[in-house]
Amino acid sequence: MNRKHLGAIIVLALAVVLASLAATSKAATKRQAKTDTIVLYASGDVNVQSLWQQYIIPGFEKKNKNIKVKFIFSEHGVQDTTTLARIGAAVKQRKWPGIDLVDAGLVTTLATDGLTQPVTKATAPNIKNVDQKLLTPVKGAAIPYRGSSVVLAYDSKNVPTPPKSLGALLAWIKAHPGKFTYNSPNSGGSGYSFAETVVDSFIPANVLRQMQTGYFPNLESNWKQGLDLLHSLNQYVYQGVYPNGNAAVLDLLGKGQIWVAPVWSDQSLTALKTGQLPPSVHLTQIANPSFTGGAAYLGVPKSARHKVDVYKFVDYVLSPAAQTQIINVMSGFPAIPLKLMPKAIQNKFADVSANSLRPTYAQKQQSDFKAQWQQNVP
Amino acid sequence: MVLPPVAVIAVFIGFPIVAAIAYTLGRAGGPNSVVASLGQRQFIVQHGVTLDAYRDILGNKTIHRDLWATVWVTVLATLVVVVVSWAIALYLRFSNTRLARIVSGLSVVPLFIPVVIASYAMLVFYSSDGFMRSVAYHLGWHSFPTLGYTLWCVFLAEVWVNIPFGVLMMSSGLNGVPDNLIEAARDSGAGMPRVVRSILLPMTIIPTVIVGTFTAIYVLGSFTVPYLTGPTAPNLLGPSMTNFFSAFNQPQQAEVLAIVVFVLALGIGAVYVWANVRTGKRSAVAP
């Protein structure tokens, strides 16, 4: 082939590409007149990802043909800090942050800093069903959409009678060296909850309440006793190691390397369903104090676009149909009253509900706690 | 013609570095205002500069341990990579058997395996129920150590990941030494050790220094390997930098750590430059 031919072919190819581009962009603008795209950012483990991607978003899009949901997922919340900065900067300049709805731990920070829409402005009828008490920790600026809690998983083959309280659990850990561990608090919520629960057991109730609602660096001296106790557990923990991530602990539990561990209720129930954990693993809650838990919140940044569509989506998430999916897929707790749910599910949650769970520290207090743990425990 | 690339580097690399250094010194204005509005435990001044963030990090006992762990793993991994890749390359230089070709093929395999996969494999391989312990157990060694989640596992994984580059670099270096020099030495009665010491080593200083410095800089700044295979503490500075940045929400401290790593890498880089200049001078004097 000579050069002339080559040149002609390139020109032809370019022309075809340009023409098709023009055609698609025309088509796109035509469609855009009817279709809105809302952007959802979520973070967490893969169970959160599959809930949105495989169930809720397809279910919503099927019912609302003219609204598309674009999904951004950040595994283990590694992008949470940068996303928080991005939304913070955009809302302050009243510009679109590129995200219309957030499902992540950072929602509570956004809400308490006044960066999200208050629930009173929400145009979603189902929001009235949500327990009003759950709105207090977020100053009424975020929407609880599911509950989950950290529970104690134990292998009933080796542990016929599980510890019932924190004191009993600590005694059990010391009596069975190498059969317990929790993931490092900076890598996942289940290990974080265990560490915070141990520390909380030494803190007066009124101080604890302050830490749950705001950021008080001067109260952090109260952590000393609990952190010392956690440090003394190093020699009893599996290989003296705190694995990275909630899933890594489930992995050790599934392989039988450890017998007892704090785990997320939803994640472990899903693991039991899929066979990642053997059926001999059972779940229980401890007392005095119990592990932390609470609602997961959705937040709408003040400068989000297509707010009417966003709330249509929120309304769908809070509908009994979607809530049933959340329970079935993620084994989460419903955020709406049980009496609105199907009978089978009412029986399943006879005595637990999302709002009776013990709350955790406010976001910034959590960051400091993770730093102190890293410095003092391992 | 030079200007556009220089401008790109100045805008996308130079400017962020200057902004980051200013932030570590306590200046929170301009490009640092968003990160400073969200970070915790910051040391900010309105006028002049402050070294408080550096004091905070360098006075932190955990960081001391991490720093030592980083230095030791880096030094050890670099030494082993240099020695092993020298040995493999030497073998390939003088042997042309089928076995040699298999070895040369195998030694570059890690190049084609993603680091995440390699790290996880390493962890499983050396875990308490892993392959190594099982084999050792069947051979009668019942107390084979569990290396998963230790600095030894980090060290082994770093060596594994860096061997291909070392072998490729050293092979090309050794192949560049003319056969007639080696034959002349042998004709005068020099044995293999003497050939290596007096001919091969002096003529491959540059590739050796490149393998050493590049491996050291890579290990120093690595994240995936220590994050997945290392202990909770002390671990290398890569994972602790990430912890400070995201989990602890202390971006200023994370950037101070980044500068500490940068200064260490700068020292290693100086060796590389020095070796280049020295060889350049020599070849200029004696053409």
Can you lay out the helices and strands and say which pair or pack?
The complex is a heterodimer of chains A (378) and B (287).
Chain A lengths: L2 H30 L3 E9 L1 H18 L3 E9 L4 H13 L8 E3 L2 H7 L30 E13 L10 H10 L13 H12 L4 H9 L10 H9 L13 H9 L5 E5 H10 L6 E4 L8 E7 L7 H11 L2 H11 L2 E2 L8 H6 L14 H14 L2
Parallel strand pairs in A: 1-2, 1-3
Antiparallel strand pairs in A: 3-7, 4-5, 4-6, 4-7, 4-8
Helix pairs in contact in A: 2-12, 6-8
Chain B lengths: L2 H22 L8 H6 L13 H7 L2 H34 L3 H10 L7 H12 L4 H8 L12 H25 L3 H9 L4 H12 L1 H16 L3 H6 L7 H11 L3 H35 L2
Helix pairs in contact in B: 1-14, 3-14, 4-5, 4-8, 4-11, 6-8, 8-11, 9-10, 11-14, 13-14
In short:
In chain A, 45% of the residues lie in helices and 14% in strands.
Fold and architecture overview:
The complex is a heterodimer of chains A (378) and B (287). Chain A is α+β, with helices and mostly antiparallel strands and 378 residues long. Chain A has two domains: 32-147 and 294-356, Periplasmic binding protein-like II (D-Maltodextrin-Binding Protein, domain 2, 3-Layer(aba) Sandwich), CATH 3.40.190.10; 149-293 and 362-376, Periplasmic binding protein-like II (D-Maltodextrin-Binding Protein, domain 2). Chain A has 14 helices and eight strands. Chain A has helices at 3-32, 46-63, 80-92, 106-112, 166-175, 189-200, 205-213, 224-232, 246-254, 265-274, 307-317, 320-330, 343-348, 363-376, and strands spanning 36-44, 67-75, 101-103, 143-155, 260-264, 281-284, 293-299, 333-334. In chain A, strands 1, 2, 3, 4, 5, 6, 7 and 8 form an eight-stranded mixed β-sheet that branches. In chain A, helix 2 packs antiparallel against helix 12 and helix 6 crosses helix 8. Mean pLDDT of chain A is 85; it is low at 25-32. Chain B is mainly α and 287 residues long. Chain B has two domains: 1-50, no CATH class; 60-285, MetI-like fold. The mean pLDDT of chain B is 90. The A-B interface holds A 77-78, 80-81, 84-85, 88-89, 184-187, 217, 239-244, 255, 257, 364, 367-368, 370-371, 374-375, 378 and B 34-35, 37-38, 40-41, 60-62, 128-129, 146, 148-149, 227-228, 231-233, 240, 243-251.
